[in-house]
Specification:
Main location: membrane
Keywords: Cell membrane, Membrane, Transmembrane, Transmembrane helix, Transport
Protein name: MATE family efflux transporter
Helix content: over 70%
Number of domains: 1
GO molecular function: antiporter activity; xenobiotic transmembrane transporter activity
Number of strands: 0
Largest sheet: none
Shape: globular
InterPro entries: MATE_fam, MdtK-like, Membrane_Transporter-Flippase
């Protein structure tokens, strides 16, 4: 980091570059864990109320939920990570003007991607949910919920893009506050629209979707108003509304590769949902309800991952590569410990979680088997996922993508072979558990082996080669 750059750095950027690693990571992760758990709680609140409508409604939501999570993970984790990484690297390198311009690039990407999700799911939803095992009443419920949710896909994308912009500056508190307030408002809003009260008609499962969209609409407005205020480090104005291809590339070269990893994660769960569908709607509801705990781990780990993106990205932009790696392994140790503890608790006591959403005997049996088999391996899922976020900050996503593709292959092919060879539902779950183990081990081994850097910790790539030749 040059002296001139160091003199011009914002205090928050300087903190990411110089403050003690673990205290800084925990301080930034605290509000961010709250925001992510609250965001996951929004979906759980909705699921709890929809469960009161019966098993078919719960199964219908289970069919749509992996696709909703796919959208949220791509917008918030993959493309959102690309946005936060690009802004962090720009600020770390002293490129304040580029960081300002990246805000508008993030908004444009969010608008286009949100419209694409709406079109694809409106046109192809019936075919997709049928392939996942939906039939009869469960398929009808899935289509109703899906059409409502994806009508507002742009709101989800804008919310996550604006939150990523703010987190890229190292500010985790504002997105946390907005999300927590929105979740508190969702608690009465969701049952009001699902069951009705007074002049408000009962909308059923569609009411849950509408409540979720109102949550994202309010959050998007709040984040935009913050960015337009003097308190924001980056402010989108007419003067900064200039679109440049290199800045789109800076976001998308990380975000699109990350999207491949996200698609692989959700596809493995969607395939397992389809395999579970061969055992009936009770099995779909049980697997879908149990696997929601895995989805709850995603925002928990993202609570650590978002500050990792900012800290690692800022350090990489400033050339502090050893510090970037120390930050990464500190985050990995914390994530593994948290997710493994949750997984073991779920394996030992599965029914308290499942009974939050229903009492159907088949649902409880299938969900219990899943948590007993896969829960003890959740630590490896947390390990792989947090290293994926750190790799986003570093702009090095090859091995996280390969690790996720390996997970998809083990989960999908293993589950299919298990049924083809006469196995039961529990054998599909064994394939899911093994896939998580492969996922975590592949990514951590690659980074430990120097996937980010060449010998002696030096950065790889043509720019690094030119720099070393010049130094020689």
């Amino acid at each position: 980091m040059s002296a001139s750059n160091g003199a011009s750095l914002d205090p928050r950027t300087r903190m990411l570059l110089e403050a003690p690693i673990v205290p800084t990571l925990l301080r930034l992760a605290g509000p961010n864990v709250v925001v992510m758990v609250a965001q996951a709680a929004a979906g759980l609140i909705e699921t709890w109320f929809v469960g009161k409508l019966g098993t078919d409604a719960l199964a219908g939501m289970a069919l749509v939920f992996p696709i909703v999570m796919l959208m949220q993970m791509i917008s918030g984790g993959a493309i959102g990570g690309g946005i936060a990484s690009a802004i962090a690297r720009a600020l770390g390198g002293g490129r304040r003007a580029d960081a300002q311009a990246l805000v508008w690039h993030a908004v444009v990407i969010a608008l286009l991607c949100g419209l694409a999700f709406t079109a694809v799911l409106w046109l192809g939803g019936r075919w997709l949910y049928s392939q996942m095992g939906g039939t009869g009443a469960s398929l009808a419920a899935a289509l109703l919920y899906s059409h409502w949710v994806f009508a507002g896909a742009v709101l989800v994308w804008l919310f996550n893009a604006l939150a990523a912009v703010i987190r890229g500056t190292g500010n985790m508190a504002v997105p946390a506050n907005v999300t927590v307030i929105g979740t508190v408002a969702l608690v009465p809003l969701s049952p009001l629209l699902i069951f009705g009260w007074g002049p408000v008609p009962a909308l059923g499962i569609a009411g849950g979707a509408l409540a979720l969209l109102l949550y994202y609409a309010g959050g998007t407005l709040a984040l935009w108003l913050y960015l337009r205020s003097p308190r924001s480090l980056l402010r989108p104005t007419r003067q900064t509304l200039q679109l440049h291809r290199p800045l789109f590339v800076d976001i998308l070269r990380v975000g699109l590769i990350g999207a491949v990893s996200t698609v692989a994660t959700n596809l493995s769960i969607a395939i397992a949902t389809g395999l579970a569908g061969q055992f009936g709607s009770g099995a779909i509801a049980g697997y879908g309800t149990a696997s929601r705990l895995e989805y709850l781990l995603v925002p928990l780990v993202f609570g650590l991952g978002a500050p990792l993106i900012a800290m690692v990205g800022t350090c990489m932009g400033a050339g502090l590569h050893e510090r970037a790696l120390r930050i990464t392994w500190a985050g990995a140790a914390i994530a593994f410990t948290l997710t493994e503890a949750i997984g073991l608790a779920a394996a030992l006591f599965p029914r308290p979680w499942l009974q939050l959403f229903g009492q159907d005997a088949l649902m409880l049996e299938a969900g219990t088997r899943y948590l007993q088999v896969v829960g003890p391996l959740y630590g490896f899922f947390g390990l792989g996922l947090v290293l994926y976020f750190a790799s986003q900050g570093a702009g090095r996503l090859l091995w996280p993508v390969l690790g996720n593709l390996a997970r998809l292959a083990v989960a999908g092919i293993g589950g299919w072979l298990a049924l083809r060879w006469g196995g039961e539902l529990v054998h599909v779950f064994w394939a899911q558990g093994l896939a998580l183990l492969v996922y975590g081990v592949v990514i951590s081994a690659a980074i430990a082996g120097g996937a980010w850097f060449g010998p002696l910790g030096r950065p790889r790539g043509p720019r690094a080669l030119v720099a070393r030749l010049h130094k020689a």
